[in-house]
Fold this sequence. Notes:
This protein is mainly α. It has ten helices and four strands. The longest helix has about 30 residues, at about 5-35. The two termini are about 40 Å apart. About 25% of the residues are buried.
Amino acid sequence: MSFPQSLNCLDVLLEQVLVLFRGVVGEQMVLREEAIMLMDVVSEAGSTDTSKLDGNEEVEAMPTSDVPPPPTPLATTPRGSSIESTALSASSELAHKSISELLRLRKDSHSLITFDEMKLLWDTSLAFTLQLEKYSGRKAYNLRGTLLAQAKAFVERKHEANMASLVAALDGERWTQCDVTAERQAALTRLCSGRAVLSTNKITNRRGNSTGNDPTNITTTTSTSSKKNKMSDAEVEGKRYKVVWSCLLLVEMVMSNVACAAHFQTLATNVVGKVVELLRLFNSRSTHLVLMAGAIHSAARLKSINAKHLALVTQCLGLVIGTLPHVRAALM
Protein backbone atom coordinates (compact mmCIF):
# COMPACT_ATOMS: atom_id res chain seq x y z
CA MET A 1 0.00 0.00 0.00
CA SER A 2 1.37 3.40 -0.96
CA PHE A 3 1.67 6.24 1.51
CA PRO A 4 -1.26 8.31 0.11
CA GLN A 5 -3.52 5.27 0.36
CA SER A 6 -2.43 4.49 3.92
CA LEU A 7 -2.82 8.13 4.92
CA ASN A 8 -6.36 8.22 3.51
CA CYS A 9 -7.24 5.08 5.48
CA LEU A 10 -5.74 6.61 8.61
CA ASP A 11 -7.72 9.82 8.10
CA VAL A 12 -10.97 7.88 7.84
CA LEU A 13 -10.15 5.81 10.92
CA LEU A 14 -9.19 8.81 13.06
CA GLU A 15 -12.27 10.73 11.99
CA GLN A 16 -14.57 7.84 12.92
CA VAL A 17 -12.91 7.49 16.32
CA LEU A 18 -13.32 11.21 16.99
CA VAL A 19 -16.98 11.03 15.92
CA LEU A 20 -17.58 8.33 18.52
CA PHE A 21 -15.85 10.31 21.26
CA ARG A 22 -17.72 13.47 20.33
CA GLY A 23 -20.96 11.54 20.66
CA VAL A 24 -19.96 10.14 24.07
CA VAL A 25 -18.90 13.53 25.41
CA GLY A 26 -22.05 15.16 24.07
CA GLU A 27 -24.23 12.49 25.68
CA GLN A 28 -22.35 12.94 28.95
CA MET A 29 -23.05 16.66 28.90
CA VAL A 30 -26.75 16.08 28.25
CA LEU A 31 -26.97 13.64 31.13
CA ARG A 32 -25.37 16.13 33.49
CA GLU A 33 -27.60 18.98 32.34
CA GLU A 34 -30.71 16.87 32.81
CA ALA A 35 -29.49 15.54 36.19
CA ILE A 36 -29.67 11.95 34.96
CA MET A 37 -27.32 9.68 36.85
CA LEU A 38 -25.65 6.38 36.01
CA MET A 39 -26.49 4.13 38.94
CA ASP A 40 -24.07 1.43 40.03
CA VAL A 41 -24.84 1.35 43.74
CA VAL A 42 -24.70 -1.89 45.71
CA SER A 43 -25.86 -1.60 49.29
CA GLU A 44 -23.25 -3.49 51.27
CA ALA A 45 -24.86 -2.78 54.62
CA GLY A 46 -28.35 -3.86 53.60
CA SER A 47 -27.54 -6.69 51.22
CA THR A 48 -28.05 -10.26 52.35
CA ASP A 49 -26.62 -13.29 50.60
CA THR A 50 -29.87 -15.16 50.04
CA SER A 51 -28.16 -17.92 48.15
CA LYS A 52 -26.97 -19.38 51.43
CA LEU A 53 -30.42 -19.43 53.00
CA ASP A 54 -32.81 -22.31 52.62
CA GLY A 55 -36.54 -21.95 52.40
CA ASN A 56 -37.14 -22.62 56.13
CA GLU A 57 -34.95 -19.77 57.40
CA GLU A 58 -36.38 -16.36 57.92
CA VAL A 59 -34.62 -13.23 56.90
CA GLU A 60 -34.57 -10.58 59.56
CA ALA A 61 -36.03 -7.39 58.27
CA MET A 62 -33.76 -4.38 58.18
CA PRO A 63 -34.79 -1.54 60.42
CA THR A 64 -36.27 1.37 58.55
CA SER A 65 -33.71 3.73 60.05
CA ASP A 66 -30.84 1.69 58.51
CA VAL A 67 -32.09 1.86 54.93
CA PRO A 68 -29.95 4.31 52.96
CA PRO A 69 -31.88 7.21 51.46
CA PRO A 70 -32.33 7.27 47.68
CA PRO A 71 -29.83 9.42 45.78
CA THR A 72 -30.91 12.93 45.05
CA PRO A 73 -32.04 13.44 41.44
CA LEU A 74 -30.76 17.00 41.28
CA ALA A 75 -27.06 16.28 40.88
CA THR A 76 -24.72 13.62 39.63
CA THR A 77 -23.33 11.56 42.46
CA PRO A 78 -19.57 11.03 42.77
CA ARG A 79 -20.12 7.35 42.05
CA GLY A 80 -21.89 8.18 38.77
CA SER A 81 -19.15 10.63 37.78
CA SER A 82 -16.48 8.02 38.41
CA ILE A 83 -18.31 5.51 36.21
CA GLU A 84 -18.45 7.98 33.31
CA SER A 85 -14.84 9.10 33.64
CA THR A 86 -13.58 5.53 33.99
CA ALA A 87 -15.40 4.40 30.86
CA LEU A 88 -14.14 7.39 28.87
CA SER A 89 -10.57 6.92 30.08
CA ALA A 90 -10.61 3.23 29.22
CA SER A 91 -11.95 3.97 25.75
CA SER A 92 -9.33 6.64 25.08
CA GLU A 93 -6.58 4.32 26.30
CA LEU A 94 -7.78 1.62 23.91
CA ALA A 95 -7.84 4.13 21.04
CA HIS A 96 -4.29 5.28 21.87
CA LYS A 97 -2.93 1.76 21.89
CA SER A 98 -4.74 0.74 18.70
CA ILE A 99 -3.57 3.76 16.68
CA SER A 100 -0.04 3.40 18.07
CA GLU A 101 0.10 -0.24 17.01
CA LEU A 102 -1.17 0.69 13.55
CA LEU A 103 1.59 3.28 13.17
CA ARG A 104 4.24 0.85 14.42
CA LEU A 105 3.31 -1.62 11.71
CA ARG A 106 4.33 0.96 9.08
CA LYS A 107 7.42 2.26 10.86
CA ASP A 108 9.84 1.06 8.20
CA SER A 109 7.70 2.43 5.39
CA HIS A 110 7.30 5.79 7.09
CA SER A 111 11.07 6.16 7.42
CA LEU A 112 11.34 6.15 3.61
CA ILE A 113 8.76 8.83 2.81
CA THR A 114 9.53 12.42 1.88
CA PHE A 115 9.65 15.33 4.29
CA ASP A 116 6.33 16.73 3.05
CA GLU A 117 4.66 13.35 3.53
CA MET A 118 6.13 13.03 7.00
CA LYS A 119 4.75 16.45 7.88
CA LEU A 120 1.28 15.33 6.76
CA LEU A 121 1.49 12.19 8.89
CA TRP A 122 2.79 14.12 11.91
CA ASP A 123 0.17 16.88 11.67
CA THR A 124 -2.70 14.43 11.16
CA SER A 125 -1.72 12.19 14.05
CA LEU A 126 -0.89 15.06 16.39
CA ALA A 127 -4.21 16.79 15.73
CA PHE A 128 -6.01 13.54 16.57
CA THR A 129 -3.92 13.13 19.72
CA LEU A 130 -4.68 16.63 20.97
CA GLN A 131 -8.39 16.25 20.28
CA LEU A 132 -8.55 12.90 22.04
CA GLU A 133 -6.66 14.27 25.04
CA LYS A 134 -9.18 17.09 25.21
CA TYR A 135 -12.09 14.65 25.31
CA SER A 136 -10.57 12.20 27.79
CA GLY A 137 -8.67 14.67 29.98
CA ARG A 138 -5.60 12.42 29.95
CA LYS A 139 -2.27 12.61 28.13
CA ALA A 140 -1.76 10.10 25.33
CA TYR A 141 1.82 9.22 26.24
CA ASN A 142 1.74 5.99 24.25
CA LEU A 143 0.65 7.63 21.00
CA ARG A 144 2.97 10.61 21.47
CA GLY A 145 5.90 8.26 22.03
CA THR A 146 5.06 6.35 18.85
CA LEU A 147 4.87 9.57 16.83
CA LEU A 148 8.21 10.72 18.22
CA ALA A 149 9.82 7.37 17.37
CA GLN A 150 8.47 7.58 13.80
CA ALA A 151 9.85 11.09 13.32
CA LYS A 152 13.20 10.10 14.81
CA ALA A 153 13.48 7.10 12.47
CA PHE A 154 12.69 9.39 9.54
CA VAL A 155 15.39 11.89 10.56
CA GLU A 156 17.94 9.09 11.01
CA ARG A 157 17.21 7.57 7.61
CA LYS A 158 17.28 10.98 5.95
CA HIS A 159 20.62 11.79 7.56
CA GLU A 160 22.15 8.51 6.40
CA ALA A 161 21.01 9.23 2.84
CA ASN A 162 22.39 12.78 3.04
CA MET A 163 25.77 11.57 4.27
CA ALA A 164 26.01 9.01 1.48
CA SER A 165 24.97 11.56 -1.16
CA LEU A 166 27.48 14.12 0.09
CA VAL A 167 30.33 11.60 0.06
CA ALA A 168 29.43 10.55 -3.49
CA ALA A 169 29.21 14.19 -4.63
CA LEU A 170 32.59 15.07 -3.09
CA ASP A 171 34.31 11.99 -4.50
CA GLY A 172 33.03 12.82 -7.98
CA GLU A 173 33.67 16.56 -7.64
CA ARG A 174 35.98 17.97 -10.31
CA TRP A 175 36.27 21.25 -8.39
CA THR A 176 35.02 23.47 -11.17
CA GLN A 177 32.71 26.41 -10.59
CA CYS A 178 29.01 25.79 -11.18
CA ASP A 179 26.18 28.23 -11.77
CA VAL A 180 23.74 29.13 -9.01
CA THR A 181 20.09 28.99 -10.05
CA ALA A 182 17.58 31.62 -8.95
CA GLU A 183 15.86 29.05 -6.70
CA ARG A 184 19.10 28.26 -4.88
CA GLN A 185 19.93 31.94 -4.42
CA ALA A 186 16.41 32.60 -3.15
CA ALA A 187 16.88 29.79 -0.61
CA LEU A 188 20.14 31.34 0.58
CA THR A 189 18.43 34.71 0.88
CA ARG A 190 15.63 33.21 2.95
CA LEU A 191 18.15 31.56 5.23
CA CYS A 192 20.05 34.81 5.79
CA SER A 193 16.82 36.71 6.45
CA GLY A 194 15.53 34.20 9.01
CA ARG A 195 12.87 32.67 6.74
CA ALA A 196 14.54 29.36 5.90
CA VAL A 197 11.60 27.24 7.06
CA LEU A 198 9.31 28.90 4.54
CA SER A 199 11.11 27.20 1.67
CA THR A 200 9.04 24.68 -0.27
CA ASN A 201 11.68 23.71 -2.80
CA LYS A 202 12.88 20.11 -2.93
CA ILE A 203 16.53 19.13 -2.76
CA THR A 204 17.92 18.83 -6.22
CA ASN A 205 19.50 15.63 -7.33
CA ARG A 206 21.35 16.71 -10.44
CA ARG A 207 24.19 19.13 -10.99
CA GLY A 208 22.66 22.56 -11.47
CA ASN A 209 19.15 21.20 -12.13
CA SER A 210 16.18 21.27 -9.79
CA THR A 211 13.88 18.24 -9.55
CA GLY A 212 11.02 20.04 -11.20
CA ASN A 213 12.94 22.07 -13.80
CA ASP A 214 15.12 19.93 -16.03
CA PRO A 215 16.76 22.02 -18.76
CA THR A 216 16.72 19.03 -21.11
CA ASN A 217 12.93 19.37 -21.28
CA ILE A 218 12.92 23.10 -21.91
CA THR A 219 12.27 24.24 -25.46
CA THR A 220 14.63 26.43 -27.45
CA THR A 221 12.41 29.48 -27.04
CA THR A 222 12.82 29.38 -23.25
CA SER A 223 16.49 28.43 -23.10
CA THR A 224 17.58 32.08 -23.08
CA SER A 225 15.32 32.94 -20.15
CA SER A 226 16.58 29.92 -18.18
CA LYS A 227 20.14 31.10 -18.59
CA LYS A 228 19.17 34.52 -17.24
CA ASN A 229 17.83 32.87 -14.10
CA LYS A 230 21.30 31.54 -13.28
CA MET A 231 24.08 33.38 -11.51
CA SER A 232 27.75 32.63 -11.66
CA ASP A 233 28.28 33.36 -7.94
CA ALA A 234 26.35 32.72 -4.74
CA GLU A 235 25.61 35.76 -2.62
CA VAL A 236 25.44 35.83 1.18
CA GLU A 237 24.98 39.16 2.98
CA GLY A 238 26.30 41.08 0.00
CA LYS A 239 29.39 38.89 -0.43
CA ARG A 240 29.76 36.79 -3.54
CA TYR A 241 31.30 33.33 -3.55
CA LYS A 242 32.33 31.04 -6.38
CA VAL A 243 31.12 27.59 -5.39
CA VAL A 244 31.11 24.01 -6.61
CA TRP A 245 28.17 21.60 -6.82
CA SER A 246 28.93 19.70 -3.62
CA CYS A 247 28.94 22.92 -1.60
CA LEU A 248 25.48 23.86 -2.85
CA LEU A 249 24.30 20.36 -2.03
CA LEU A 250 25.64 20.72 1.51
CA VAL A 251 23.80 24.02 2.01
CA GLU A 252 20.53 22.51 0.82
CA MET A 253 20.93 19.52 3.12
CA VAL A 254 21.55 21.85 6.06
CA MET A 255 18.47 23.89 5.18
CA SER A 256 16.43 20.70 4.96
CA ASN A 257 17.57 19.79 8.47
CA VAL A 258 16.62 23.26 9.66
CA ALA A 259 13.10 22.68 8.30
CA CYS A 260 12.95 19.34 10.15
CA ALA A 261 14.00 20.97 13.40
CA ALA A 262 11.37 23.67 12.97
CA HIS A 263 8.55 21.21 12.36
CA PHE A 264 9.60 18.44 14.75
CA GLN A 265 10.67 20.66 17.60
CA THR A 266 11.12 17.79 20.04
CA LEU A 267 13.92 16.51 17.77
CA ALA A 268 15.72 19.85 17.42
CA THR A 269 18.66 18.75 19.56
CA ASN A 270 19.03 15.59 17.51
CA VAL A 271 18.95 17.58 14.25
CA VAL A 272 21.70 19.90 15.49
CA GLY A 273 24.00 16.89 15.79
CA LYS A 274 23.15 15.86 12.23
CA VAL A 275 24.05 19.30 10.90
CA VAL A 276 27.38 19.18 12.73
CA GLU A 277 28.16 15.79 11.21
CA LEU A 278 27.44 17.09 7.69
CA LEU A 279 29.70 20.11 8.17
CA ARG A 280 32.51 18.00 9.61
CA LEU A 281 32.23 15.56 6.73
CA PHE A 282 32.45 18.33 4.14
CA ASN A 283 35.42 19.92 5.88
CA SER A 284 37.41 16.71 6.35
CA ARG A 285 36.59 15.33 2.91
CA SER A 286 37.46 18.59 1.16
CA THR A 287 40.77 18.73 3.02
CA HIS A 288 41.59 15.19 1.97
CA LEU A 289 40.58 15.64 -1.67
CA VAL A 290 42.21 19.02 -2.38
CA LEU A 291 44.86 19.86 0.20
CA MET A 292 46.07 16.25 0.36
CA ALA A 293 45.54 15.67 -3.39
CA GLY A 294 43.07 12.85 -2.80
CA ALA A 295 41.03 13.98 -5.82
CA ILE A 296 43.77 12.56 -8.08
CA HIS A 297 42.87 9.05 -6.91
CA SER A 298 39.13 9.62 -6.36
CA ALA A 299 36.31 9.06 -8.83
CA ALA A 300 37.00 12.50 -10.36
CA ARG A 301 40.52 11.40 -11.45
CA LEU A 302 42.00 14.90 -11.57
CA LYS A 303 45.40 15.10 -13.22
CA SER A 304 46.73 17.58 -10.67
CA ILE A 305 45.72 20.01 -7.93
CA ASN A 306 46.33 23.63 -8.89
CA ALA A 307 45.71 27.08 -7.44
CA LYS A 308 42.24 27.24 -9.01
CA HIS A 309 41.14 24.22 -7.01
CA LEU A 310 42.54 25.71 -3.80
CA ALA A 311 40.74 29.00 -4.47
CA LEU A 312 37.41 27.23 -5.02
CA VAL A 313 37.77 25.30 -1.78
CA THR A 314 38.48 28.54 0.05
CA GLN A 315 35.41 30.17 -1.50
CA CYS A 316 33.20 27.21 -0.59
CA LEU A 317 34.39 27.25 3.02
CA GLY A 318 33.79 31.00 3.09
CA LEU A 319 30.18 30.46 2.00
CA VAL A 320 29.66 27.82 4.68
CA ILE A 321 31.18 30.06 7.36
CA GLY A 322 29.00 32.95 6.21
CA THR A 323 25.82 30.92 6.59
CA LEU A 324 26.73 29.34 9.95
CA PRO A 325 25.38 32.20 12.15
CA HIS A 326 22.04 32.05 10.34
CA VAL A 327 21.89 28.26 10.63
CA ARG A 328 22.66 28.54 14.35
CA ALA A 329 19.91 31.14 14.80
CA ALA A 330 17.41 28.97 12.92
CA LEU A 331 18.19 25.96 15.11
CA MET A 332 17.94 27.84 18.41
